[in-house]
Amino acid sequence: MKRKNSVSRAKILMIVWLLTAIAALVVTVVYFGELQELYSTVKTIEETKQGQTPAGPGEPGKPADTGATVVADNGTADRDSDAGKTGPAGDAGANTGVPDNTADTAAAPGNTDSQQGPGSGTDSAAPTSAASSSPTSAPEATPTPGETPTPEPTPTTEPFDPTEHAYYFDPNIDPSKPIIALSFDDGPSSHTDRILAALKKYNVKATFFMVGYEVDSFPDQVRAVYDAGCEVANHTLDHANLKEKGKDEIRRQVYDNEKKINKLVPVGEIIVRPPYGNVNDTVKSVVERPMFNWSVDSLDWKTRNADSVVAQIKQDARDGYIILMHDLYESTAEATERIIPWLLEQGYQITCISNMFEARGDEVLPGHLYRYATPLDGN
Questions:
Q1: pLDDT value of position 184
Q2: Dist CA 209 CA 291 (whole Å)
Q3: Around 215, how many Cα atoms within 13 Å sit in the side-chain half-sphere?
């Protein structure tokens, strides 16, 4: 009897054990998926703390998008790695037919004037209140971890083709006849309209090198120069002596002024006249635009007298030369009205700088400085 009871209890224990095992197996099967999901959730939390998004099936974790944006190079970003590059042919301007002025002054052939004044020396006319010092450079944006920053564009060393930028381009200029270019610095001003009227009367063009603070003061005159088909050009933001500035400030002076002008008129990349005619190797390495000084200084900034200005130009005018004046003075406006018909009587075609160089087939390169186009006699 006892033996039967023992067997019965053993069977009961065996059945209980089997039921327990089956129940455990069922629990394991039912909740296995939930355990996997719990594990995945924990892993997601850990990866998020480390700035990672959870990995999808069959792919590694990806950098999380934190909303940070890498600032693209706007054309004025630091290009120190290319410092010293002045384009093909080097600083001598070889094979261009036009000498590159590597000197710090801008004395033209046969012209021994001191070259001082606005656009050529100490500028007493430029408002001192408008000049500004270099601002503290803004910190660069920090790329998102794992994100590749936008590469800086490679500075161009291609020849500057005025036909690609120049609404003012005139294909009717005859290279076999004398050409001379009129240029006006430091404006625009209240006298620019009178000068434009004289140009229109005789159907000729000129180049206007504009300063940033005057662009702000006379936006209608900027548009008037453009609408007249004349060449809108760059004379920096504050008439700064670029030789005395670092690379960042040179970029700001040149490229910020170009942007300012383009907000008013769609001229794109435009040529530059360095204030006071001053350049050095640093300026040449940073300014990726052709630069132009002058070969005739009218001294209008000094004399403020129309008779003297007309006499100076008559004395120094030559084929291929660039005449420097300033559209800041009433006396210059009067001199312009008188000198244009005289130059036409002498057989000169009067145009803007880029037209003259294009007509003579003179290649102009970014970062190079020019003072006159190839004359008819080639000398």
A1: 98
A2: 11
A3: 25
